[in-house]
Every structure is written in structure tokens, then in C-alpha cells.
């Protein structure tokens, strides 16, 4: 092929046989057959090097003290004593790239590539004819791959959460080009994806333990998307107040009904003798206007307790989409974000099935809070539930639904399972979030790999569940994410479902904890149950930033100060509207008539 006027023959470059490192590099988007090709963009260098380390498992040698090549292991003259520090190379690479991009010269990205990066890449190309399975045994290749990985990661500090320099602006453009799914410029998103990273796991030894700023994962059926950072209009926040509205406050047995079929034109398909489907259709539903007025009143009451409300959260299936739009308008104008579970009727797009989704509206924290409605439409993010809820016999008895649903066969939630996605949304530099809907928290596949790779600061789990107690299933799965990679997790349910719950009490436990509507867990201080006081129907949860140092595996790969949102207090409040006092106007009217 032709490259800069020189014709190269694949045979002249020793085209590697099948199963070789060269073949793997070509698959990833690198060009080992082009003698002058180099990874000029740090996320690409990271993706290629980290993929090789993960594929061969060679990164585990880092914990054995073999992260650097040793003079004694080289057969040719050693340069180990002059080996540059990979983190320093990455930081210098970042500065050079920012300078080149500031001049608007993207064609000069190649010239900005440091000599050390070129040398490490040449070391990898030296082994391109080696069988991939043998690469883990080559200490020089291991050192080159690790150094490329570390340098690429070090160059990407604050990527995805800030746009303060041309390099970070370029990263945003690359994300947009890849539909917000990857930071890579040359590595196809269909083969490998790299997204910004917020936490490095401090336990275990995986490829996730090697970086602070970049997350590598193999794209699967989950479309993982990194949304643009939504910078707060008032700057970075020291405190984040969430208004938790555990509505509806009452759930009736009549809100559940058995469905005889899965879809309108799919009668009785998939229904065995021991399975049924059910629908959740609340009989009592407020008009969107009345519900929006209630939310506005709740925010007014909450701001008497705290300085301001930064976000409003409602649990799974709490609103219709029409109600959400009305509530969204109120919340955005009050300069807060909105995260809510939403239920919708079936349509042609959903095969006639109802849908269960979460909807995120981040616009309220930004300067665009007073923007027209079409801006809200663009900013709104919708994510469908990944797994159906299965009501078994124990749960049907626990929620006292035996008169509505058969307690012998399992009853499956009749909802549409569409394309699966997970969205990472950054509201401030120390608060990158994602949302899971009930069952999605418990089912590890297919979303958990992505969440563990990215390590968001806060995971919202919107549930339709019983009380959020330490000894129940949400606590168990939240602890997994809190330990690895270090996420804080907030699970919340509706007061109506919590009140319906009649679990078997353990011996000696006579307390009624059915007002415990949320459970908080973070990696620093552990768990805390959040309960409402009698007669209350909302709660304000306050979060603050706690920092801690995280380390990567291997000597010399550096440390990083990570942020952890932690519990800073909860206030139970009543948002019930007080009836207006009627004043008798007749005496004054009669007096006017007499005059």
C-alpha cells in the first residue's frame, strides 16, 4: 500500500501468521503492516495496550514486581536505567497535544507524540510475528504495553468531566463522533470501547486495577454512553441535597392484575402452566398539573430545611410520562435535576407492551434551566429496564396480593424489553451517576461489567420493593458495588409498596420498619437506613464529598485522589398541602350594601 509515497508490500513486512500479535493489533484498528503507524491519541494507545494485557493476562505480573524491564533480562544493551517514567511521559504528551490542538492543527497530532511512546510502540511491533499466547512471556513486550497503558491513562486526567483545555474539548468531539460510546479515535467502538473512569478498585487484580482515568471494556449488547458533563451554574458544589419523593404513598391490590397474554397479537405464547404475566395499573392517578403542584410544594417545604434542593428523585413506576413532563417543568425551573421511574402504555414501537423506564433530566443545574421546552427535550435521557420482575409465591404473600395474583405459578412483569443501555451522567466534578431499575441491580449480566469498569460515584437504584433494610437483597448487591469499584449506592422504593410489605419477622423483632423507604451505602462509612417519621411522605438526603487516595497495581503507576459522595444527613418532611382557611366575606359584603 502507499504511505507517504513509499510502496510497502505485506510480504516485505513479514505479514504475521494467524493467531499472532500482529493479527490481533490489526483487529483492534492498529496498523502493524505500516512501518510508520503510531497511536497518536492517548485513549487509542491505552485501548490497544490494555487489550493486549487483558487478552494475555500478562498484567498479573505487575503484582510480582515485573512492571519494569530489568538489565539482567535483556539480551541486547540495556537502556533500563534511562527508561522514562510513563506517567511523566503521559503528562507531557497531554501538554503537547493541548498546544497543537489550540493552534487548530489536528494533522500535527503525530508530531506531538513523544519519543518514548514511539519507542514503546516499536517494542510491541518487534513482537508482531509472535503467537499471541506467547506474548505474556516476553518481559520487554510486557514493559512496553504497561508503559503505553500508564502513559495513555496519565494523559487523560479529568477527561469526560471538564473542557478546560483543547485536549478535553477534542475528547468531547471524539465522544460525539462515536455517539458518546468511546473516546478512541482509531479503535472502532464495535471492537473496543474506552470511557472516562471515576474509581479504581482497591481489591483484587484485574485490568481495571491498572488505570485511574480510562475504563476499557468490550462492547456487548449494552450501549454504554457517557453524557456531556453538566456543569452547575453556581460552579462546583460542596453539598448536594436530594429530595426523595417515595410516591405513591399508597398502593392498592387493585393496582395489580393478571394479564392473559404477553402482547396483543401474541396470545398465550410463552405461558406455561406454572407462569403468568401481570400488569401494574394504578387505579388512582393524579392529573399532571396537580402532581406538578404537589412537587412544587414539596420543594418549597424542603427548602425550609436545607439551603437549596439540587435534585429530585422518585422510585420505579411512580409517574406516567405525561406526569413526568409536568413535574420536569417545575423541577427544572427550580434549578434541580430530576430522576424518576416512569411507566408507559404499549405502542407499535413496543410491540403493544407497556414499558418500564427511568428518565433523567439534568438541565436544572445548568445555566439553561430557563431554556425553552425543546431544549429540555434534547437534554432528557430515557433508559429502559433490562429485566422483568418475577413475583413468586413468597412475594405475592408478602405484599398481600394473593386475591389478585395466583400465588402458585410465578407471575412475570409484562413489560417491553428493548435495546439495553446505561447512561453515565456527570452533574459536578465529584458526582458522576448512573441509574438501575429494581431487578437490574440484582442481575449481574449484562450491565455490571460496564459499571465496574467506569466506577461511577453514585448508582441510583429505583425500586418497587419493600422496606430498604440492611438484611434485604438491595443491601447485598449494593455492597458488591461499594467494595468494587467503590461506588456509593442509593436504593429507594415507594412508601406505598413499603407499607404493603408483610415479611416474616425474625424471632424477637417486633419493630415496624415499613417506613424505611431508602438505603444508603458508601465505601467510606458503610450503610444507613433512611426512614420517614409517622405522617411524613418525603425526605431530604444531603451528600458531601469525601476524598481518598486510590492506587493502581504495580510499582510506579502512581496514586490518584478519588471522590466519594457520603451521607451528610437526612430530614423526614411532610409535603401534605394544608387546607386553605375559609374566611367569611358575607358580613363585609352586607356592610358594603348597607353603606
If you had to describe this structure to a student in words, what would you say it looks like?
The chain has 595 residues and is of the alpha/beta class. The protein has two domains: 11-194, no CATH class; 239-252 and 287-387 and 416-504 and 512-573, Carbon-nitrogen hydrolase (Nitrilase/N-carbamoyl-D-aminoacid amidohydrolase, 4-Layer Sandwich), CATH 3.60.110. The protein contains 15 helices and 22 strands. It has helices at residues 21-28, 42-56, 86-102, 115-126, 139-154, 166-177, 288-302, 321-333, 373-379, 393-398, 439-442, 448-454, 473-483, 495-500, 586-594, and strands at 2-3, 6-7, 193-196, 214-217, 223-226, 239-244, 256-259, 275-280, 311-320, 337-344, 355-361, 381-384, 390-391, 410-413, 421-428, 431-437, 458-462, 488-492, 516-522, 526-531, 538-551, 559-573. The protein has a seven-stranded mixed β-sheet. It has a seven-stranded mixed β-sheet with strand order 12-11-10-9-6-21-22, with helices on one face. A four-stranded mixed β-sheet has the order 7-8-14-13. The longest helix is centred in the N-terminal third of the chain and has 17 residues, at 86-102. The chain is globular, with a radius of gyration of 28 Å. Residues 1-13, 69-81 and 582-595 have low confidence and may be disordered.
Amino acid at each position: 500500500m502507499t504511505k507517504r509515497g513509499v510502496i510497502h508490500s505485506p510480504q516485505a513486512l513479514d505479514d504475521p501468521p494467524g493467531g499472532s500479535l500482529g493479527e490481533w493489533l490489526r483487529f483492534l484498528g492498529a496498523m502493524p503492516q505500516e512501518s510508520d503507524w503510531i497511536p497518536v491519541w492517548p485513549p487509542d494507545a491505552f485501548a490497544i495496550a490494555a487489550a493486549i494485557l487483558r487478552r494475555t493476562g500478562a498484567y498479573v505480573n505487575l503484582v510480582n514486581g515485573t512492571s519494569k524491564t530489568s538489565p539482567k533480562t535483556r539480551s541486547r544493551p540495556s537502556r533500563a536505567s534511562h527508561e522514562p517514567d510513563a506517567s511523566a511521559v503521559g503528562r507531557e504528551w497531554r501538554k503537547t497535544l493541548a498546544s497543537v490542538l489550540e493552534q487548530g492543527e489536528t494533522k500535527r497530532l503525530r508530531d506531538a507524540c513523544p519519543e518514548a511512546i514511539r519507542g514503546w510502540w516499536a517494542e510491541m511491533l518487534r513482537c508482531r510475528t509472535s503467537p499471541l499466547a506467547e506474548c505474556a512471556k516476553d518481559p520487554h513486550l510486557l514493559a512496553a504495553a504497561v508503559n503505553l497503558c500508564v502513559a495513555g491513562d496519565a494523559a487523560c486526567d479529568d477527561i469526560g468531566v471538564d473542557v478546560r483545555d483543547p485536549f478535553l474539548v477534542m475528547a468531547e468531539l471524539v465522544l460525539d463522533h462515536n455517539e458518546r460510546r468511546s473516546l478512541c479515535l482509531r479503535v472502532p467502538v464495535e471492537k473496543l470501547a474506552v470511557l472516562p473512569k471515576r474509581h479504581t478498585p482497591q481489591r483484587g487484580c484485574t485490568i481495571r486495577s491498572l488505570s485511574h482515568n480510562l475504563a476499557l471494556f468490550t462492547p456487548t449488547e449494552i450501549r454504554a454512553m457517557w453524557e456531556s458533563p453538566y456543569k452547575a451554574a453556581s460552579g462546583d458544589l460542596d453539598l448536594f441535597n436530594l429530595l426523595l419523593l417515595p410516591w405513591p404513598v399508597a398502593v392498592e391490590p387493585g393496582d395489580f392484575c393478571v394479564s392473559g397474554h404477553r402482547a396483543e397479537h401474541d396470545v398465550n405464547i410463552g405461558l406455561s402452566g406454572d407462569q403468568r404475566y401481570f400488569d401494574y395499573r394504578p387505579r388512582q392517578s393524579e392529573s399532571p398539573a396537580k402532581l406538578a403542584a404537589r412537587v412544587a410544594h414539596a420543594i418549597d417545604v424542603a427548602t425550609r430545611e436545607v439551603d437549596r434542593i439540587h435534585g429530585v428523585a422518585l422510585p420505579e413506576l411512580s409517574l406516567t410520562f405525561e406526569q413526568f413532563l409536568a413535574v420536569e417543568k417545575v423541577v427544572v425551573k427550580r434549578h434541580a435535576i430530576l430522576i424518576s421511574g416512569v411507566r408507559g402504555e404499549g405502542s407499535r414501537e413496543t410491540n403493544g407492551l407497556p414499558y418500564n423506564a427511568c428518565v433523567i433530566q439534568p438541565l436544572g443545574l445548568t445555566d439553561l434551566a430557563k431554556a425553552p421546552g425543546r431544549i429540555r427535550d434534547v437534554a432528557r435521557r430515557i433508559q429502559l429496564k433490562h429485566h422483568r420482575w418475577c413475583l413468586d409465591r413468597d412475594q405475592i404473600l408478602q405484599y398481600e396480593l394473593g386475591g389478585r395474583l395466583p400465588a402458585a405459578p410465578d407471575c412475570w412483569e409484562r413489560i417491553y424489553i428493548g435495546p439495553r443501555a446505561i447512561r453515565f451522567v456527570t452533574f459536578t466534578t465529584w458526582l458522576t451517576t448512573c441509574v438501575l431499575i429494581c431487578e437490574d441491580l440484582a442481575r449481574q449480566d449484562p450491565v455490571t461489567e460496564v459499571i465496574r469498569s467506569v466506577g461511577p460515584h453514585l448508582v441510583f437504584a429505583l425500586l418497587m420493593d419493600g422496606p430498604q433494610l440492611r438484611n434485604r437483597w438491595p443491601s447485598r448487591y449494593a455492597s458488591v458495588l461499594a467494595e468494587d469499584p467503590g461506588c456509593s449506592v442509593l436504593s429507594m422504593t415507594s412508601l406505598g409498596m413499603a407499607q404493603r410489605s408483610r415479611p416474616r419477622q425474625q424471632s424477637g423483632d417486633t419493630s415496624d420498619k415499613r417506613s424505611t423507604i431508602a438505603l444508603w451505602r458508601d465505601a467510606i462509612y458503610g450503610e444507613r437506613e433512611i426512614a420517614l417519621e409517622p405522617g411524613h411522605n418525603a425526605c431530604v438526603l444531603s451528600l458531601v464529598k469525601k476524598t481518598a487516595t486510590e492506587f493502581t497495581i504495580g510499582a510506579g503507576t502512581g496514586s490518584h485522589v478519588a471522590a466519594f459522595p457520603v451521607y451528610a444527613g437526612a430530614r423526614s418532611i411532610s409535603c401534605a398541602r394544608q387546607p386553605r382557611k375559609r374566611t367569611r366575606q358575607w358580613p363585609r359584603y352586607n356592610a358594603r350594601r348597607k353603606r
